[in-house]
Design a protein that fits this description.
Length: 386
Amino acid sequence: MIRFKTGFVFLSISLIAACDSESLDIEAPTEANIQLGPRPAYLVDQLAEGELKDNLTSCLNNRSHFEKSELSIGHRGAPLMFPEHTKESYVAAARMGAGVLECDVAFTSDAELVCRHSHSDLHTTTNVLATELADKCSIPFTPADELNGVKAQAECRTSDFTLAEFKSLQGKMDAYNPNATTVAEYMDATPSYRTDLYAGTGTLMTHRESIALFKELGVKMTPELKTPDAQDLAAAGLTQEEFAQKMIQEYIDAGVAPSDVYPQSFLIDDVEYWVANTPEFGEQGVYLTFSLNNVPTPAEIVEKGINIIAPIYPLLVTKSGDEVVATDYANEIKESGLDIITWTIERQYTDYNELEVVNVLKNDINAIGIFSDWPATVTFVDNCTE
């Protein structure tokens, strides 16, 4: 429930309640309350005239409700407008019909797993620099010096803090101002295509808490094992394999069915580890790629026992004239028998219309999952196209 009053927005307590791993007080979205908002219609309006626009317009005008979609993956939640990897962002994504949610998994100095996109992003994604913990950062804030061409610096790593310290922080929109001369200027840099409207809470989450929340929301889970530096592993007393095992163990401890989990990594060794050591979870292990450099061929990936590849979507689609079409690489993957997941819609990786891209990814390339910073976009296309 949202009420408007003279420019002020009041959010219901159930939406912004602090995360409690024992009692999350979240009702799983149902077919009756999936909310897509105005953005899908806005994107339809931007489409060139043609069959796709006609079909999606008809769907907008005639469909009374939308169903949850497992094609729709909440990339860090819904970070186009909500602070990433926060409870609020995850709940928003589920309410937009995302059938799968992502916790990128990093760890603290006491080896506790937490949801962060990187081991080294707390200075841009949380309020840590404005707290008493700022002095513990690997690189405390230093102001820009325009006269000498020096940019502002800071680096705050998850491994700089204990779990209790991490949980005391608040999430914010991922941004920083390299020309800042004060902490306030450094933190206040949200790009124009995003918003701070929903950044007033930003409840950080542990990996275990994300599992509990996702179970309550009735969605599947796709954790990404983030690659730590040697200093992170040393601080927590972990090896890479122990980190990979620890992440899977938390799903086992929570009683999550392996079929509900898609563990991901950019390190193919991690995926091979899951295939060899936790084969029930390795069955849906996802190998992430962002280029074709030093990447095994699709056939070689299949030989390693990996079933799913997740390239960045500009590797899968291109323009032929005015039309978005599948690339030769996308067709090679399909021919190999690998399943395809891709990332990330609503992140401005191309200037193609988002709906055209999603339509090709779903209906021509047969992707089984599409990450989006605003999951309503993928939910909409999945509900409105065959």
